[in-house]
Amino acid sequence: MRRPDTIEHMYLDFDGFFASVEQQIDSRLRGRPVGVIPYVGGTRAILIACSREAKARGVKNIMPVDEAKSICPDLILVPQKPEMYRRAHNALVAEIHAVIPIDTVKSIDELACRLGADDIADPYTLAQRIKRAIRYGIGASITCSMGFAANRHLAKIACAVGKPDGCTVWRPQDMPGPLIRIPLEDVPGVGRRMAQRLAIAGVETTEGLLRLAPKEARALWRNVSGERLWYALHGYAIEAPPSQRGMFGHMRVLPPEGRTLPAARDIARLLAVKAARRMRREGYTSSLLMLHASLKDGWWGRERVMRQVQDDAAVLQSLLLLWSELQTTAGKSRQIFRVGVTLGALTPAGERQLDLLDDDDDDRQRWERLGRAIDGANAKFGRTLVSVGPWDPPKGGNVGGKISFTRIPSAEDFA
Questions:
Q1: Which residue has the higher pLDDT, 45 or 271?
Q2: Rounded to whole angstroms, how far apart are CA atoms 332 and 206?
Q3: Which of 53, 167, 256, 344 is 20 to 30 A (C-alpha) from 276?
Q4: 3-state SS, one letter per residue, for the chain
Q5: Per-residue model confidence (pLDDT) at position 415
Q6: UmuC domain: from which residue to which, for each copy (predicted)?
Q7: pLDDT digits (tens, 9 = 90+) for 16-60
Q8: Active site residues
């Protein structure tokens, strides 16, 4: 396995992305502590993101709004605008791509680049060129941090060291000194549960993790991921295997007025249709529908096996059957705070195997032809004009267009 003797990768992370985009769009928010919330009036919700000014006051992402306001009373709350963040992401990617080719867009606010010879020789000049392109091409409110290292994993860790608005270069000859100072829980790939498992094995620091043998790391992770992480942390040129699509799903936190069973059912229905649309666009069928909900005193989840389907009618039929189970469990007086719908057990549409005992092929094909016609009409006009059943999105929209950091919605997700 190759071990580079110089830096080869850059990792870039936008600082407080959602909040900084809000500040760039609205000059009244600049220089002030800003927190992004899921919906209008979400004073009892969780902060999706916060600005660097808010973080300097002790506010953190995924913090309850009431706690954040107790820490920072003048925190300005703004509801999320996923479509605006998507457009900002695309504009920023275009600006950066004009400076250096982008190897991988990792999420809505993170990307990675392979370095050319000139950039390897002078990474700080490259960083200045990118920051200048963002400042004058997009605006000064949106900043980014960058990390340079022998591989992408180390570059990602180095990037986090310099936040906000920093630039950190970890050359192979300097390692592992800077890495040893990183807390173990800040190493990507070491989650809370994994950290507990490592602690039981006597590994409580990043230095301790580095001292393991590759096979020991594999045994602790109970799969090849531990060994891959070991090689990445030791500076080897190791690339993550290509990811495969496993599911299509959407989740939504419900506003206070939408927490009744009928209102939550309507949202779940919209989420299911949105997921089915995405699945069709990417050419898959699904054999499993999962419905989950956060109730006042717990979590509820069920799944239903389907035939290999992709049309709205089949998905909605399964959803309504699951919803009847939820309604029986929850009762009429129970509140639902969050609802999610996921389509799993995916198969490429061209590889679908129909059951010879199920004489439903004609019916399925008829619904699929209707689905393609509906998708075509909605795509043509850029919004939902035709749907199977009612289509009444809640105030604030964003149903199916929410950004989860790991997924960047397309324009069609907001139709």
A1: 271
A2: 51
A3: 256
A4: CCCCCCCCEEEEEECCHHHHHHHHHCHHHCCCCEEEECCCCCCCCECCEECHHHHHCCCCCCCEHHHHHHHCCCCEEEECCHHHHHHHHHHHHHHHHCCCCCCEEEECCEEEEECCHHHHHCHHHHHHHHHHHHHHHCCCCCCEEEEEECCHHHHHHHHHHCCCCCEEECCHHHCCHHHHCCCHHHCCCCCHHHHHHHHHCCCCCHHHHHHCCHHHHHHHHCCHHHHHHHHHHCCCCCCCCCCCCCCEEEEEECCHHHCCHHHHHHHHHHHHHHHHHHHHHCCEEEEEEEEEEEECCEEEEEEEEEEEECCHHHHHHHHHHHHHHHHHHHCCCCCEEEEEEEEEEEEEHHHCCCCCCCCCHHHHHHHHHHHHHHHHHHHHHCCCCCCCCCCCCCCCCCCCCCCCCCCCCCHHHHC
A5: 55
A6: 9-191
A7: 999 999 999 999 999 999 999 987 776 678 899 999 999 999 999
A8: 110
Contact 178, 161 (CB under 8 A): yes
CATH of domain 248-414: 3.30.1490.100
Nearest to 400 by CA among 227, 232, 244, 278: 278
Read off the pLDDT band of 359 (50, 70, 90).
low
Where do the structural domains in the chain lie, given as residue ranges?
Answer: 248-414
Amino acid, single-letter form, for residue 235 = G
| pLDDT score of 352 | 66
For the chain, the average pLDDT equals: 88
Q: Which residues contact 228 (CB under 8 A, 6 or more apart)?
A: 238, 240
- Tracing tokens 């340079």 back to the chain, one arrives at 148
Residues paired with residue 99 on neighbouring β-strands, in sequence order: none
